[in-house]
Batch of 4 targets.
Target 1
Amino acid sequence: MADGGASGPRTAVVLAGGLGTRLAPVVGPRPKVLAQVLGRPFLAFLLDRLAASGIARVVLCTGYGGGQVRAYFGDRHGALALAYSREAAPLGTAGALRLALPLLDEDPVLALNGDSYCDADLAAVWAAHHASGAAATLVLAEVSDAARYGSVATDGDGRVVGFAEKTASGPGWVSAGIYVLARRVLEEIPRGRPVSLEREVLPRWIGRGLRAERSDGTFIDIGTPRAYAAADAVLGSLLA
């Protein structure tokens, strides 16, 4: 099994199977990752970002609308080679990663949510993960109101010490949807049933090598109509 080394990963996996129930009134029956931003599917911007970071291959975890995703992107996106892991029934974020594990050729594994974008330095995150000896590293972004996300608490050494529920309003550090995960973390995920990475898997690794890296990069997600409505302006400003 290949180890990407501290210089950076060559393969990434993107969670692209979300149903997008809250977005359905504005994007119709298409999956969330195909929601149009600046005239392109949101996923295209994420793939562009991965390619610019030196990634050569991306595994897309699809589910609802998986055929639409594959029909649009095919086997390549620019210089990126694309592979697909499609769930037959919803498996949750962690279950989808477990299903895709045979297609992932590195240890650790770089994983990203397909409905959020953070302009983090992926090579720096990867190097920090290796240097720390962590089992799992998640990237954090600071938002003005953490109520919709739930915040992540860390100690002075960057170790994650707790996850807050989606209730406390006000500014906070939240998961930016970027993870570096040792294969043993993914191998512990139960097969064949829905499992949440955020609610079930990562909390179990507190005290067992779960760390966080704070990023000051721009962070957006398209999980709600309000957030999606702001995506054109935010991404447009970032990419100008």
Target 2
Amino acid sequence: MILDSVQPDGNQSLASLSREEIREKFRQCMREADTFIKERKFEQAKSKLAEASRFDPTNPYLTAFRERIQLYERNPELLSTRKSTIVAKPSLKPTQTKEVSKTTEELPSYSPTMVENKIRDQIDVEYKMKFTEELKRAELQASEKIKNFDKKGRDRLHTLAEQFQSRYNQQIAAERQKAQRDAEAALEEERINLKKQHDQLIKEQNENIKKIRAELRKEIEQNFLKRFEQVSRQYDLKMELLQVKIPQTREEALELYREKLRKSYSNGEPTVEGAKQLMELKELLEITFDEHFSLEAQVRLDNYVATVQKKILTGEISLLKSEKLEALKQQFQITPEEESQIQSYIKSNIEKSKLKGRILVVDDDKALLDVLEVALNSSGYDVVKSLDVQGAYQLLKTTAVDLILCDIKFPEGELDGFKLFTTIQEEPLLRKIPFIFMSALIDGLIMRSGVQLGIDDYLTKPVDIDFLLAVIEGKIKRYRSLD
């Protein structure tokens, strides 16, 4: 929990700081510590963590960062591979490695298979190097044996020549021609026999080389399968962290991280183990600290609002009794600034739940606003009105509604209804509210644009009141069931 006042050691400098200033100083220390870790400056990182603990000594991220530093100090080689992307689980046989590498080279730079390509390329290079080394060794051995055999053959030929020469000298007087013919015939026969023996030895050596190659290939394939299993286990771990779905865009990565934060912060702040997992996921998705703190603030506010509304509706707490509300604020670390932003919205939301429904109608035609107000009031709905989109947006900040009924074109000549819709979609507390356009414009392009933006319905003027009431009732029922 972030310190509210002076530290136990008597440090008076924190007493003059607001909770938000202390939180920002803590975040700055964590950013700098994260940077030092990536630069292998572990002592500076530890110093920054010690400084951060002055502002929030119980924050679970401190433990997560200290364990990261210990891990990198023991295994510095991990730091060069920490910034990784997600790899798809390989499923190809070793004989298909070349085809896979050709395919992966065509993927775009942001593809999550970049690490897979790198790993497979490394395996392929190691495979080729080892295979080439063993092949050269086998060829050298075979060449040495062939040289030895050739030498023995030459020695044997030399010996035979000397024998035949001796016989020739002994019988030269009487059988010169016969001895010469016999010698030549014998030499020719011996040459043929030697050639046959030479060919047989070459064949045997080739068979041995093939056998050695097969054994080497089998050994390399076994090593490859072991590496494949390791990669598969790493892939399964990452899939578990990502909860199976692999984000393909930056928006999907941020949304996935937001969902993980929402679960981890369901009780106000994460556990130490939850903080470790968040840090792992943050690095895996390459989420910056600024993005982390922004998403964390949104999640805390959303969870706080939902918890307060639930406990008020169930009677566990009351807006008149602030003790339990203060406990919830402490639990979700709500600052006074954040409280002032959402207090009026919570009260309005509680009041809204007691009605059949509250509808915001936005149109520059005052007469039409009055007609719609009478019709909706008579059907049991509360109505708030606005003549322009700016006023409507301000109303939404303090008033909870179940449905927005808005015109498209206003006197300024611009399609301000579209602007209001896109602005609301950027607000976590407002973007789920059903939004219906109504307009006298029957332009097909405008209608398609509204549908592409994600509006819930489109009604043309003049509006049929009975049809409008039926649409409103259905949308509000669905909205409240989802809410």
Target 3
Amino acid sequence: MQSVWRAFLRLFFRLLYNELAWSYDLVAWLVSLGHWKAWGRTTLRHAAGERVLELGHGPGHLLAALEEQGFRPVGLDLSPNMGHLARERLRRADIDVPLVRARAQALPFHDGCFDTLIATFPTEFIIDPTTLREVTRTARPEGRLVVAVGARFDGQGIVAAFLSRLYRVTGQNEPPPDALRLWLEHTELSPRIVREQVGQTTMLLLVAKRL
């Protein structure tokens, strides 16, 4: 039964990120009680330097926020649907940010070219050892990887309780900190766990520095 459920979730998230990308913002807003963009923006205060790569840029909200705060961002995503949404959003805001369609496991960038790499609520690609090698390769010495890993609803109420349970079922809830450290145990990245308060929710972030 669990294998069937995982297969269903993979299909749902694939459709949401591709053929149903037009509904992504609405779904994200609903399942986060309106916190989705604020959750993503918690990564900004942990970014360092100027050159920032967002892995899985989605509809482009964080890229616009990075540009507005003076960073020089680049967006990477494999989904052509998300590429279209992000391109249109940035065009309407008169923001020029390079967008690249590629896999995180094969970043088309030279060694040490980014100060920070960011991912918000990434799918399983982020734990792929090949992705971590590419992150390490393209990060400058002492560069950073910042990952918005999960969220927890601290408020009371039926809706918050329902969403907390939903996040546990879908695997989007806050993972154990030890699991995050083990994930980077054999890499050249030194992690620390950070929690940020957003309204009545708590965000869990992983901030890892390249050794």
Target 4
Amino acid sequence: MDKRRRIGEVNSEPGIGGREARAGFCSRTTGQRSAYAIVAFFMVALGGCGLMEKSEPPEQEPPPAEPAPVVEPEPEPIVVADLSTVMNYLELGEPDRALEMIGRLSEESPNSQVLARLLRQIEMPIDQLLPGPYRQIEVGPGESLSLIAARELGDPLMFYALARLNGIDVPSRIPVGTVLRIPELPDPPTAETPEANSIESPTRISTPEIESVAEYLARSGQVEQARHMLIGRLEDAATPESTHELLVGLTLERASQLRAEGAYDQATSVIDRALSVVDFPEPRARLRLARSATRSQMFVEAAQSLRERGELVPAYEMAINATRLDFASTDADQLVTELRQQVVDELHNQALLAWRDRNVDLAIRTWESLLAVVPGFEPASVYLERARRLRQRLGEP
């Protein structure tokens, strides 16, 4: 009983014993809490580091390299089987390819005189094709083997035979100054026998061949010979519009060259010759426009010459004619504007001087001349009316 009492007293007595017991419990609890706090701190710290480590983005792997683009081989160019291709092969020194093309074309045109002539140049022994004796000439600036063959042999298509005779592998590449052997002909070609006419009779050559040969002649610097050949065909037989177009293109090219040289009359004649054989409306319209532009440019230069000599009125009238021929000519329009101002300034000033000097007749004549040329110049009309009234008051006729 005493034991239970002591225990009860200890537990129930709010004295020192009970406070000490509670204090000991609290002190133990605080220490444990501190330990727990330290442990928790390190765990949080470690956990935070782990989280930080985990939160860092992983190293990015380099993106996979793009596959290299597939380079497809360029398609083989389409080779058109025509006479122009054969001549291109020969110009480039490729007789085997030319022979293959001639064989294909001969199946379609077994009687082609042009193909036969080209074939002989490839296969026939050169000393039989171009026998001696020979003389020497030198290649000049702007000359081709075709041009030389036309001039010396009377046939521009003999360029490949001439190349073989002189050991030239690529006929299209012949430097200026090259010395060539040329056969001595008993009857050399002359100016009276145009080179283009030597390619057999135009009526014996098909239209596609005529066009191909003409294009080749133009490429080799023989535009006039090409034009003569086409004109001959248009005069002798009905031809498709393509032949007319080809002649017009070559004619305009030639006329442009002549205009650049100042040979306007000759350029006009070249156009007129083509107009005499071209029948289709659109090609004819192009030729007529070119003719008007040529004449207009000629008038512009004539007006400029008159202007330099001080003949302003004739120059102005010539410039107006130039604009009427070619409405699109900016040179003619500008010249008209400049000359109009010059004519007005000169004649109006002359009339004013005469008016101030009381030379009424001279003033009237000068203003009348000005208005005849520039009808819309209002100040001249006003002054002329005053001068006429004054002359009437003075009783002059």
